[in-house]
Design brief:
It is built from four helices and nine strands. It is of the alpha/beta class. The protein has a single domain, classed as Rhodanese-like domain (Oxidized Rhodanese, domain 1). The longest helix has 12 residues. The model has no long low-confidence stretch (mean pLDDT 93).
Length: 145
């Protein structure tokens, strides 16, 4: 467990469809508090759920949280989630979320997925995010933190 093969990259539109279809699936935002506050967060309230928010890297030092898997496991257990629930991890562009998904797969969660384009997607030619791909660009619901 914990290899790249354990984590599937999923497009944002597919993530939305899977969250709609599977009421036990969960979206986990692993960005930092400032990103949530200033860039915005996915809004899945229309699906009757909230996004779990937990930093993969702590702000402002950018160190990976050594207790991430343990902390998120506790949040999932408190929410009544089993280890076979579909988990979809999102960050800005898909890198941190892949690492977080791999950590949770290594911790025994069987269905970990990476939101490939992230919340904002890659930089465009003007070095702006949110225009080419990602949750925001796809027009999926989000709110300003």
């Amino acid at each position: 467990m914990g290899s790249d093969a354990d984590v599937e990259d999923v497009s944002v539109l597919d993530v939305w469809e899977r969250l709609e279809a599977d009421k036990l699936a969960q979206l986990v935002d692993v960005r930092t508090r400032p990103e949530w506050a200033f860039v915005g967060v996915p809004d899945i309230s229309g699906l009757g759920r909230r996004v779990l928010m937990i930093e993969w890297q702590t702000f402002p030092d950018n160190r990976v949280d050594a207790d991430f898997a343990e902390r998120l496991s506790g949040m999932l257990e408190a929410a009544g989630m089993k280890k076979d629930a579909g988990l979809f991890f999102i960050c800005r562009s898909g890198a941190r979320s892949r690492s977080a998904a791999e950590a949770m797969a290594a911790a025994g969660y069987a269905r970990c997925h990476n939101v490939a384009e992230g919340f904002e997607g890659p930089l465009d030619p003007n070095r702006h995010r949110g225009n080419l791909a990602g949750w925001k660009s796809a027009g999926l619901p989000w709110v300003q933190g």
